């Protein structure tokens, strides 16, 4: 099933993101987490891909194939391109196709620290164009409500987002953000630029101070006062911070639903417990949204 079709039939799509375990950990760690999330009934589950590109034998390919074989929800395979040669991408697509995977989140990936690139694909739009040559695949892309960290400004970033849609991206998943107002302003600009594809909102619950430092260094997202106050107050108490982060993410989602968002993508950090807490906080709201059409 093409995930893009879900946006035509559901008012609010709900999904999870997971990542493959480190190469030194057994893959069963993530299979176990998935089994524990199964009864939360996400519409789809996305699986991240190494920035360096790890080809057809990547754990991403293995995990999405496992989901396809064992679960009712659809897998979405992330695929990065900047550090991959065309042959690797072609082999990965062949393996995904052979394993009945239909949905790909096409990404550029982050540059290596030394700035080197493989040179076959410089931007996600080039990967999208390439993947779309095979009509079997439905393609999604990333977008950035606060602008991509490398972009000159948000308008320029939205121009390139439009290019991704023109090349075949059927929906977008956002980078995490902590201030919904940034998202609402972004959506206005995106629609004014003529981009009409669904925008699926990525929400990351902040459950410890170490995590927020890593997130900020990668995404450049800003932290509103309300969240920094929670971090200052509860950051040293593991359980309290976990609860505060789950409540903050829940409030963000409730406000997004109230503003007619098309979907919520939960960055679960492979934690069935976080996924369960948040899903239980909002499941009646999702049910009500999807039955009141
Ligand atoms: P692009 O759309 O190519 O944009 C990259 C930059 O180039 C932007 O600044 C853009 O404005 C600019 N640009 C785009 N096109 C052009 C052009 N034609 N000319 C000039 N400039 C241009 N990373 C991983 O390694 N693995 C993952 O699994 C992963 N999953 C992600 C999931 C989501 C939902 C998001 C939001 C990000 C994810 N990332 C992942 C991170 C992503 O790879 C990085 O943010 C990367 O730096 C940009 O990827 P992109 O696909 O948005 O790139």
**Cα distance, first to last residue?**
22 Å
Q: What is the H/E order? A: HEHEHEHEHEHEHEHHHEH
**Assembly state:** single chain
Mean pLDDT: 95
Structural class: alpha/beta
Based on Cα principal axes, name the global outline.
globular
Q: Count the helices. How many?
A: 11
Radius of gyration: 18 Å
Bound molecules: flavin-adenine dinucleotide
How many beta-strand elements? 8
Number of domains: 1
Instruction: Give the class-level CATH name.
Output: Alpha Beta
Placed side by side, the strands forming the largest sheet appear as: 1-2-3-4-5-6-7-8
Model description:
The chain contains 11 helices and 8 strands. The chain is of the alpha/beta class. The protein has a single domain, classed as TIM Barrel (Alpha-Beta Barrel), CATH 3.20.20.220. α5 (124-131) runs parallel beside α6. The two termini are 22 Å apart. The structure holds flavin-adenine dinucleotide.
Summarize it.
The protein contains eleven helices and eight strands.
Task: Record keyword descriptors for this entry.
single chain; 293 residues; alpha/beta; TIM Barrel; eight-stranded parallel β-barrel; 8 strands; binds flavin-adenine dinucleotide
Secondary structure blueprint with pairings:
Layout: H1 3-9, E1 13-18, H2 28-37, E2 44-47, H3 59-70, E3 74-80, H4 86-98, E4 103-107, H5 124-131, E5 138-143, H6 154-167, E6 171-174, H7 180-192, E7 199-203, H8 209-219, H9 225-234, H10 238-258, E8 263-267, H11 272-291
Helix pairs in contact: 2-11, 5-6, 9-10, 10-11
């Amino acid at each position: 099933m093409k995930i893009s079709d879900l946006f035509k039939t559901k008012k609010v799509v709900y999904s999870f993101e997971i990542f493959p375990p480190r190469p030194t950990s057994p893959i069963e760690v993530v299979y176990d987490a998935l089994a524990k999330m199964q009864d939360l009934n996400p519409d789809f589950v996305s699986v991240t891909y190494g920035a360096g590109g790890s080809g057809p034998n990547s754990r991403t390919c293995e995990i999405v194939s496992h989901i396809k074989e064992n679960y009712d929800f659809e897998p979405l395979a992330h695929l990065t391109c900047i550090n991959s040669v065309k042959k690797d991408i072609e082999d990965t697509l062949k393996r995904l196709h052979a394993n009945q995977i239909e949905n790909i989140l096409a990404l550029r990936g982050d540059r290596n620290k030394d700035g080197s690139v493989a040179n076959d694909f410089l931007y996600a739009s080039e990967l999208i164009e390439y993947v779309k040559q095979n009509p079997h695949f439905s393609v999604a892309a990333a977008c950035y409500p606060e602008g991509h960290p490398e972009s000159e400004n948000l308008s320029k970033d939205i121009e390139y987002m439009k290019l991704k849609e023109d090349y075949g991206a059927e929906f977008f998943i956002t980078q995490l953000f902590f201030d919904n107002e940034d998202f609402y302003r972004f959506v206005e600009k995106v629609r004014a630029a003529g981009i009409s594809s669904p925008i699926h909102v990525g929400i990351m619950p902040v459950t410890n101070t170490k995590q927020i430092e890593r997130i900020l260094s990668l995404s450049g997202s800003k932290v509103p006062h309300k969240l920094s106050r929670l971090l200052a107050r509860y950051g040293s108490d593991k359980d309290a911070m976990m609860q505060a982060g789950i409540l903050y993410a829940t409030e963000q989602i409730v406000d997004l639903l109230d503003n007619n968002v098309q979907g919520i993508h939960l960055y679960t950090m492979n934690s069935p417990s976080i996924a369960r807490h948040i899903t239980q906080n909002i499941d009646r709201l999702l049910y009500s949204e999807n039955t009141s059409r």
